[in-house]
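call fold(seq) -> tokens
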Amino acid sequence: MNVRLIGVPMDLGADRRGVDMGPSAIRYAGLADELAAVGHDVRDDGDLAVPTPETTADSGGGAKYLAETAEVCRDLRAAVTDALDDGAFPLVLGGDHSIAVGTAGGAAATGSTGVVWFDAHGDFNTPETTPSGNVHGMPVAALLGRGEFADAAWARASNIDPENVALVGIRSLDDAERAALADSEVTVYTMSDIDERGLTDVADEALAVAADGTDGLHVSLDMDFLDPDEAPGVGTPVRGGVTYREAHAAMEAVADRIDDVRTMEVVEVNPILDSHNRTAELAVELLASALGKRIL
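ret:
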């Protein structure tokens, strides 16, 4: 494939600083060379311009920096659609998970899109329900136009239906978020499901749910999907995540359906909390697995 790397050094969506350095850490870990070794042509388009908290006054409301996040997501959506129009595969490097509104929105601009969301969190809050105000806890709700996002053209993706959204690895939900997910058509696979059924079975089913009747898939990998013992440098670590080998199995399941995958992103790498760039290096390994690297 012609892989187009797009960096989005965003940390406006979270209280904890550092994920803005994630794209640089992933590049430094050798992503372009690793993907080239798999056989892909790789072009790095650099980073989108993103405001910083030091230079930006919060616009107020129930979600912090919502107007600024919207502007970045609009720019990212345009960059993703441009790459798709050029016949490239957009691979977006975050940044906090709020950027997924731009990536998935760009994918959905070209046709009906299913979403597979590998994450410890549901990201299903809205400005009305959030206990923190952090937008990185809202992107799934935003894409589906829930609550305040119903009239937000920058967020709501009309070509993404909730029945084609699958969340995998969930183990941390707020009370209102849990109730909203239970009342939605989104499919949720918790860590208990993975424990009972095995990661490969769950990942295969999640991809099938997302792909059913759609024109393509968006895959979103939050590095807190993994247990903090495996990936210590993440924005919001939660104990009890998947193992190193399980994470590779999930990405190998993605690779088995790579012809259906339109866009992909990796988010929430925080070098400040990492050890020797370990989490960024793991992100590179997982992306290589998703894009076809095999043992044999």
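The CA atoms of residues 112 and 214 lie 5 Å apart.
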